[in-house]
Amino acid sequence: MRPTLLAIPLFLLSAQDFAKAIRFDIKARPRRSLSSGLARRAADISGTTSVADVGDVQYDTNITLGGKTFTVQIDTGSSDLWVAGDVPNTSDTTKTAKVTYAVGEVEGSVLTADLTFAGYTISNQAFISVTANSENTDGDGLIGLGPNTGSQVLDALDNADKGNPVLDRIFKQNTSTPNYITVRLGRLDDPTSPQTGEFTVGEILSGYGDVVNQPKLSVTVLPSSNSVNQHWQVLLDENGIVGPANENVISELNIKTAVDSTSSSHQLTVIFDTGYSLPQVPSKVAEAFYSHVPNAQLVSRSDLSGNVWQIPCDKEVNVTFKFGGASYPIHPLDTNLDLNLTDSSGKHICVGAFQPFDASDGATYDMIFGMAFLRNTYTYINFGDFVDGTTTTASPYVQLLSLTNSSAEWHSDFVTSRGNSPWSPSAATLAQRLKARLPLVIGVAVGALVLLLALIGGCIWRSRRSKARYAQVGAPPAPGGGGGPFWGGRQRRYQPLDEPAPEAYGMHPPGHRPTPSQGYENPWDSRL
């Protein structure tokens, strides 16, 4: 399938201003073999984290470069334009650039040519010219739609204006165009939704206007020392992951961010990336989603570049994420993904789309939400002052309009596409909760033990001190000034010389036992 380029004329933004808005179709390619080269995105240049990008579709549109048509993937996770094959009518900058991906890389000369993109013509747009091969065939390419700080072309050309990414050139050249884009992605397996998607610049699709009423999610801006890793990234709510059993996954499993600059340890940083297929989430999150699915297995697959939960294709898994207090349910066709795979015995299986991934401490993000998440939202990205040389002072932000709102519809879609074998989701077990909080449990246990030992030691010390004080205060002086309170190895009661004999108190002398009529037993009998 090849997309058709649609140009939209001038579009009224307010009573005073007009802006040129553009919109064009983006289409999902049919599934292909995983080994033939899949959707991918640029990894962090700093090498903090390198993650795999695999999937069954990519979203493309057409551009004209130097008079030749190319089909390019749209990618909000990177910044540069590259195409494979010869480009006519170019100029050579004598520079080269390389973009490193999680799987593979592209490298080539930095050339310039006139670009026609969705109705705009940009003179002398810089791009990377890649030699065509079996993976990057002649006529293919990728257009980066991320912040310009990650641009390798811009860096190679020493930040010259012609090195700016395509959207920066459009926004600077057409000042009446609002500095935002929107993306809606289709789903191949969905019987009730279109397979195509749409991408716009400076325009909101008809019927999706409510996106501007959704929470404004501020883009977390990295410090200038790490700006090369800047992506369209926002903060998930502290209780922003609801699992299949309707449990609060972050709280129950004590999941914490790896991003040092985040003020709340339970608030995770999420990147939105149209070029990424399988969303990357912490291992504990993936485990909460899939470990209780009957016959689920965590397996390592080279064709998926790492670990993934392997599950039966007919098991419906429902999860929800929360941003800015708003809920975004994920269609079960996007949580249980059919990639036409088989297990070791040759049986057809599916995989949990949310793939285990643990960011290292000090990372700039915790999760990557690619296509499997973005198919469930209409995504609005406002560039704010992220455009090179712009006079705009507003901060960049993202707004998300949920597209998966009817549980009855998504359940029907899943049954129609996959069938259904019901199962009962379970929340995290006590063992999982204790494991997740093991450092805390150990700390509390050690603290309790120390406190208990301190209490026992205190009781022993107080008891000994009390006895010592009793012996010191209650011990009588020895007769004649010597001998002490003991005599013959037995403690003996001291009787002052002027004390009356026991008979004076009605007592009886030693050796005499009273008859019952004489009253009580003589206490002296037990002394000597």
Helix-strand makeup class: alpha+beta
The number of domains: 2
Tell me the β content: 25-35%
Low-confidence stretches: 1-21, 29-56, 478-497, 502-508, 510-528
Instruction: Summarize model confidence as the mean pLDDT.
Output: 79
The CATH C-level name of the largest domain is Mainly Beta
Q: Widest sheet: strand order?
A: 4-5-10-6-9-8
Number of strands: 29
Major sheet details: 6 strands, mixed, barrel
CATH architecture of the largest domain: Beta Barrel
Look up the CATH topology of the largest domain: Cathepsin D, subunit A, domain 1
Helix content: 10-25%
**How much is the radius of gyration in Å?**
38 Å
CATH homology superfamily of the largest domain: Acid Proteases
* Separation of the first and last Cα atoms: 114 Å
Helical stretch tally: 9
Describe the structure.
17% of the residues lie in helices and 28% in strands. It is built from 9 helices and 29 strands. By secondary structure, the chain is α+β, with helices and mostly antiparallel strands. Residues 1-21, 29-56, 478-497, 502-508 and 510-528 have low confidence and may be disordered. The chain folds into 2 domains: 10-428, Cathepsin D, subunit A, domain 1 (Beta Barrel); 438-466. It has helices at 152-156, 166-173, 249-252, 283-290, 332-335, 371-374, 407-418, 430-436, 438-474; strands spanning 10-12, 18-20, 22-28, 59-65, 68-75, 81-84, 91-100, 105-117, 120-130, 140-144, 180-184, 196-201, 217-218, 233-235, 241-242, 269-272, 280-281, 297-301, 306-311, 319-323, 326-330, 336-342, 348-352, 355-356, 367-369, 377-382, 397-402, 486-487, 490-491. The chain has a 6-stranded mixed barrel with strand order 4-5-10-6-9-8. Strands 18-19-23-22 form a 4-stranded antiparallel β-sheet. A 3-stranded mixed β-sheet has the order 14-16-25.
